[in-house]
Amino acid sequence: MDKFLKAAIEEAKKGMEEGGIPIGSVVVYNGKIIGRGHNRRVQNGSVVLHGEMDALENAGRQSANVYKNCTLYTTLSPCAMCSGAILLYGIPKVIIGENTTFLGEEALLKSRGVNVEVVNNQECKDLMTLFITTNPELWNEDIGV
After folding, report:
1. How far apart are CA 79 and CA 64, in angstroms?
2. Taking the complete model, does pTM exceed 0.90, yes or no?
3. How far apart are CA 21 and CA 51, in angstroms?
4. Which pLDDT score is estimated for 143?
5. Are the C-beta atoms of residues 74 and 97 closer than 8 Å to each other?
6. Which residue(s) pair with 33 in the sheet?
């Protein structure tokens, strides 16, 4: 397994251990993780801290040149909010662990020239399937249902 996807999965597991939603993400620049995060909406009482947003926040303020040379790894297909951030900062490539439990805005990302790769990782699917089954109300809140 790709070491960066593995790091995103580690973040997802942290989220679940903290009582949150098991979605993790890392931002990679020049072969190094510059930001890592996990969904912390529950833990922080936040409306915006999805895994991708947390990873971007933890990457800190970067120049446009850095973002334009990053790859974002995420355990789950990015929602509209996270996809908007990816587009806003010009991140050219997104590696997605799985999109069977939730299909986000992949078509939008592709339509704007983002290289989107879905790897269909079973561990990512299992984490989300278990979470959605045991916490349907919380999951629906997270995706705005």
Report:
1. 22
2. yes
3. 9
4. 73
5. yes
6. 28
Active-site annotation holder among 10, 11, 18, 52: 52
Matching residue, tokens 């050219």:
92
123 assigned to active site: no
User: Of 70, 76, 15, 77, whose CA–CA distance to 46 is shortest?
Assistant: 15
Chain-centroid distance, C-alpha 42: 16
- pLDDT higher than 80, residue 105: yes
Degrees to nearest 5, angle at CA 135 with 38 and 94: 35
Euclidean distance between CA atoms 45 and 70, whole angstroms: 29
β-strand 93-98 against 24-29: which pairing, if any?
unpaired
The residues pairing with 1 across neighbouring beta strands, listed in sequence order, are: none
With left for phi above 0 and alpha for psi between -120 and 50, is residue 132 left, alpha or beta? alpha
State the pLDDT at residue 25. Answer: 98
Separation between Cα atoms, residue 117 and residue 97, nearest integer Å: 9
- Please give the pLDDT value at position 85: 97
